[in-house]
Amino acid sequence: MQNSEMAGLINRVAIGDRQAFTDLYRVTSPKLFAICLRILKDRGEAEEALQEVYIKVWQKAKSFAIGSGMPTTWLATIARNHAIDIIRARKPVNDDIDEVFDLADETMPNPEQSVAMADDGRRIDACMGELDQVHAQSVRRAYVEGLTYAELADDLRVPLNTVRTWLRRSLLKLRECMQR
Amino acid sequence: MTTEPLDRNPPDGGRPENDEILAGEYVLGVLSLEARHRIEARMASDQSFARLVARWQSNMASFNGDYQEQQPSTAVFQAIERRLFTENRRVEVKQGLWDAVGFWRGLSFATSAIAAVALLYIATVQLRPTTTNNIVAELSAPNDPVALRVSFNPADGRLRIIPIADQSTEKSLQLWLVPQSGNPTSLGVFEPGTDGELLIPAKLRSRIGQGATLAVSVEPLGGSPTGLPTGPVIASGSARNL
């Protein structure tokens, strides 16, 4: 389905069109279910989460109509956020977040000038290729599987602070690369 | 007189790259629930930070390709429909007008708690006699582009409730028929100063029946210039036989 068609469906959901909601569910639920399942790792829980996700879709459709962006991204974000909230609530993370990051000498463009929603920079795939391979894999696994720093550290058998520094530096490098 | 150096740090003492990292970590999902909630609260009040988050979401969207589609069981959609529609309908039947009021308040009030307070504000009631001896009250909430005009005819005991756009905003309310597929069709614009009745064009009458979806949007004065809804939809629902 074209993005414009899917955006049209969401806009009709926003005005309470139940048929559009049924169609949207039919087209998008396999993807959103896959997201819930991958992050929650339990079919029953993923199906419960999927219910909540589509109830949010119904309720938030108006905010999509007003905002912009790709409909697939909007939907996937609702699903990921919900699934991640569930696992974080179930297994609290002890993150004494050091709010002031110690990543001196990284230079960043001014976000005010450079935030553009369009995919006008380099694609993230190209920029991921510029990262150390282990770091790139960590970034991707954190995103796709919804892992915490501690889980990544256990998995990779490196200290937690090391993983945290890898990911934070990777984020800055990705941003710098995509704006190049 | 003191001059701030141009390259001073943001007021929170952080640096732009810290916000960039925090936004990225939020989108990756590595943060704790508490940190996630803090970030979501900040996104609601800090637009430039919200844009950083949105940009990471857009950038990382290609990772969503790693999720291989899976079919959920059919019971899931049935449960969703039951929760969204069956329970709502029961409320609708019981509550009628109040359900409609819920739509209006949903327009400008983010939380139901605030909305409940808002109902108390429906106090700007102006009673005035009109030439037809009808008694008219306009019920509105502060900052709400929509009001309900209640007109009561003491002679026959009839009371009508008509949605009207706030006159100071120079907007009109337009009623739409939303088909199962295709574009919404205008059923008319609520004219101020009338009794709220809309004459439905003959060729559209057969389309308003059980299950038809009706919606009201806020449009420029006089109605949508494009023939399609352009403003926010403030209310919608399915028609049913009573």
UniProtKB/TrEMBL annotation, chain A:
Keyword Oxidoreductase recorded: no
A Pfam family that the UniProt record links to this protein: Sigma70_r4_2
GO-annotated molecular function: DNA binding; sigma factor activity
Alphabetized InterPro entries for the sequence: RNA_pol_sigma-70-like, RNA_pol_sigma-70_dom, RNA_pol_sigma70_r2, RNA_pol_sigma70_r4_t2, RNA_pol_sigma_r2, RNA_pol_sigma_r3/r4-like, WH-like_DNA-bd_sf
Alphabetical UniProt keywords: Sigma factor, Transcription, Transcription regulation
One GO term of the biological process aspect: DNA-templated transcription initiation
Keyword Transcription regulation: yes
Domain of life: Bacteria
Residues annotated as domain RNA polymerase sigma factor 70 region 4 type: 122-174
Record protein name field: RNA polymerase sigma-70 factor (ECF subfamily)
Domain RNA polymerase sigma-70 region: 24-91
Similarity field: Belongs to the sigma-70 factor family. ECF subfamily.
UniProtKB/TrEMBL annotation, chain B:
Biased amino acid composition, Low complexity: 223-232
InterPro entries in UniProt: Anti-sigma-K/W_factor, RskA_C
Residues in Anti-sigma K factor RskA C-terminal domain copies: 111-233
GO terms of biological process kind: regulation of translation
Keyword Transmembrane helix attributed: yes
GO CC list: plasma membrane
PANTHER family: ANTI-SIGMA-K FACTOR RSKA (PTHR37461)
UniProt-recorded name of the protein: Anti-sigma-K factor RskA
